[in-house]
Design brief:
Number of helices: 7
Strand order of the largest sheet: 1-2-3
GO molecular function, one term: nucleotidyltransferase activity
Number of strands: 3
Largest sheet: 3 strands, parallel
Protein name: THIF-type NAD/FAD binding fold domain-containing protein
Number of domains: 2
Organism: Aldrovandia affinis
Shape: elongated
CATH class of the largest domain: Alpha Beta
Domain THIF-type NAD/FAD binding fold: 66-176
GO biological process, one term: tRNA wobble position uridine thiolation
Strand content: 5-15%
Length: 184
């Protein structure tokens, strides 16, 4: 009888571990679902964005994804957490904006605004690395957002099909506040 009780307790501990793993996966999927707008949702006006949610820990997947930069003593886990709270507005999804957006997303920026009023053309493809044959004719902001989401689905992308102007500049920039440094 005692062996049976011990065996059942071991099985229960194993099931608890499995449940914890499944709960973690579910939380990750729910976070991605909340943070990513549908791929076809393109902002054609400036709307107020909610603040990024504060994170206190990294998931196992994030630790694996960002492991090389986490090893840097100047960066570490705290640096990665701060980066996940940062937001950047990239004005122009062309020859300079594409690699900038790509590297910010790969590093794990929290939110990435992608603003461009133009559409992808064949003559863009040799230098605008986020766009491809399959996105010709699409707004560049949407094409770039799709590529960024494939690269790192944990990054919130906000594509804007707008021309940057004195009428919308302040509203747009206010959506992407500068990072606040803390003195440690």
């Amino acid at each position: 009888m005692e062996k049976e009780v011990i065996s059942l307790k071991e099985q229960l501990l194993e099931r608890d571990k499995e449940i914890a793993v499944l709960k973690d996966k579910l939380a990750q999927l729910q976070t991605l679902h909340r943070s990513n707008k549908p791929l076809n949702e393109l902002q054609e006006k400036v709307t107020t964005l909610p603040p990024l949610k504060a994170k206190t820990t990294l998931t196992n997947e994030e630790i694996m994804r960002y492991s090389r930069q986490l090893l840097l003593p100047e960066f570490g886990v705290q640096g990665q957490l701060k980066l996940s709270q940062a937001s950047v507005l990239v004005v122009g999804c062309g020859g300079l904006g594409c690699p900038l957006a790509q590297y910010l997303a790969a590093a794990g920026i929290g939110r990435l605004g992608l603003l461009d009023y133009d559409e992808v053309e064949l003559s863009n493809l040799h230098r605008q690395i986020l766009h491809g044959e399959d996105t010709r004719g699409q707004p560049k902001a949407l094409s770039a957002a799709q590529a960024i989401r494939r690269l790192n689905p944990g990054v919130e992308c906000v594509p804007y099909h707008l021309k940057f102007s004195h009428e919308n500049a302040l509203q747009l920039i206010q959506q992407y506040p500068p990072c606040v440094r803390s003195s440690a």
